[in-house]
Amino acid sequence: MHEIETTRLFLRRLQLTDDESLQHTIFGDPEVMRFGDGIQSIEWTRKWIRTRLEDDYPFHGYGPYAVVEKAGNNLLGYCGLFHFPDVNGKPEIEIGYRLARNAWGNGFATESARAVRDFAFCSLGIQRIIAIIDPSNIASIHVAEKIGMHYEQDVLFEGYSYPDHVYVVIRL
Asked: Does the pTM exceed 0.85?
């Protein structure tokens, strides 16, 4: 079942069988993970998917969605919503996205992020969405701005030596 559909993409809930594809194209690629916690193992990827399936979807009613290109049915990465209990002292819902390098530069990140934003506002009734972005990640900042987000503040998470930027969009 596809939860969200755009002109070129299907966005569906993650599946355990997405592990190898996500590992190969996202979590195991040092360039894709450059602004994250670095490359991850297949075991880490499987645990990440299980957490989404067992915690995010059932407890929050949302999570990240597998981004699948309609032409060719290729899994391009993920885009979706994440619950953060404490961002500068308050709970927030973040939109996050990571796509395989071969999908970069085609507008897929913006298309999927816009669809997730609209789904969050219209179907889930969410009023505010943030994006937490490394200030050096210019491509991700451009995606956030294209979907109507603007810089709000910096946040420093425990264990990190530099602040990330927080971008926000509010349902009108």
From this structure: yes
- pLDDT tens for 60-116 read 989 999 999 999 999 999 999 999 999 999 999 999 999 999 999 999 999 999 999
Angle CA(130)–CA(122)–CA(108) in degrees, nearest 5? 60
Q: What is the distance between the alpha carbons of residues 95 and 108, in angstroms, rounded to a whole number?
A: 15
Question: What's the burial of 159, exposed, middle or buried (CB within 10 Å: 0-12/13-18/19+)?
Answer: exposed
- Cβ atoms within 10 Å, residue 59: 10
CA dihedral 106, 69, 17, 79 (to 10 degrees): 50
What is the rounded distance in angstroms from the CA atom of residue 21 to the CA atom of residue 156? 31
- Return the C-alpha torsion angle 136, 20, 92, 147, nearest 10: 60
Domain map (residue ranges) of the chain: 4-170
Neighbour count for residue 7 (Cβ, 10 Å): 7
Q: What is the CATH number of domain 4-170?
A: 3.40.630.30
